[in-house]
Amino acid sequence: MTAPPVDVDLGAPFVRTRRPVWLTPALVGLATLVLTSLSIRSAAERQEPILDSMEIQPFEAAATLAYAWGSTADASALERQVLALAERQRGAEPSARARSSSEPDFAALRRMDADMAKFRLAVLEGASRPTFERLCAAATIRCNVYTLDSLINMLEKQRLVHAAR
Amino acid sequence: MTGKPSFETVFKLTGYHLGAAAVGFMLAAALFAPKPRVVAPVPERTLKVLELRNQARAAASASSGAAVARAVELCKALAWPACDEASVRAMGTGP
Predict the structure, then answer these.
(1) Which of A13, A36, A74 sits opposite B24 (nearest CB)?
(2) Hey, which residues does A15 pair with through a beta bridge?
(3) In tens digits, what is the pLDDT along chain B, a chain of 95 residues?
(4) Closest-CA residue in chain A for B85?
């Protein structure tokens, strides 16, 4: 028993063309390939800075505690680790235009992490005033000659181990 | 050549196009899938600092007990300058 033929109403006469039957499926497949690869690349580019920031988090938590309460050697080592991870370059950073306005700028946040790590290292090493001024001039964080002293004071106060001893 | 397409023709053509889209999708996923991230292992000492952080946080909210003792023990193992109970509790109240 066979099914009755189905009548497809096209609204216009069906015209068989001479183009090969594989042409439109091939074009569809190619278009899907291109669109999917572009969307994969775009998603990977947007995720990269987020994953980089997530990777820094445990080191930053450890460095914050070590800076406040730890030995100078531990604090320096952890701040250097944070600095190395924060300054790591992984290809091109996504441009501000490519990034959605609702997403935080993780690349800028990492640069701020790097700035703070540099300042903390300078405090730990007892750096001279010109060193702090040089760091301040190159910093992403808000720093100028008027706020530099308060920034240094704040960082020195965060080293609580001096007060506890 | 004109005429009405049979159901089989429409079915086959739709199948070819959907199949081609699926192949394109699979190829893109196979060729352009992001590589797994290579994350360096966290050093042993950093893990101890992180454990101290957790224990100090627990100690800050406890009057006495295992958390305080463990935090003091970890602090001494790290040879940090201030490892008394008061300092360890203060560690747990920080950022």
Answers:
(1) A36
(2) B2
(3) 456 788 898 899 899 999 999 999 999 999 999 888 888 889 999 999 999 999 998 888 876 688 888 899 999 999 999 888 888 888 888 76
(4) A164
Portion 18-77 of B in contact with A at CB < 8 A: 19-25, 27-29, 31-34, 37, 39, 42-43, 45-46, 49-50, 52-53, 56, 75
Q: Where are the alpha helices (DSSP H) in chain B?
A: 7-32, 44-60, 66-77, 85-91
- Domain spans of chain A, in order of start: 49-89+105-164
Q: B43-49 long-range CB contacts below 8 Å, 24 or more apart? A: B43/A81, B45/A74, B45/A77, B45/B78, B46/A58, B46/A59, B46/A62, B46/A78, B46/A81, B48/B74, B48/B77, B48/B78, B49/A62, B49/A65, B49/A66, B49/A70, B49/A74, B49/A78, B49/B78
Considering only CA atoms, give the Rg of chain B.
31
Q: What is the ipTM of this complex?
A: 0.77
CA gap A2, A4 in Å, rounded: 6
pLDDT 10s digits, A85-143: 998 876 555 555 555 667 778 888 888 999 999 999 999 998 888 999 999 988 878 88
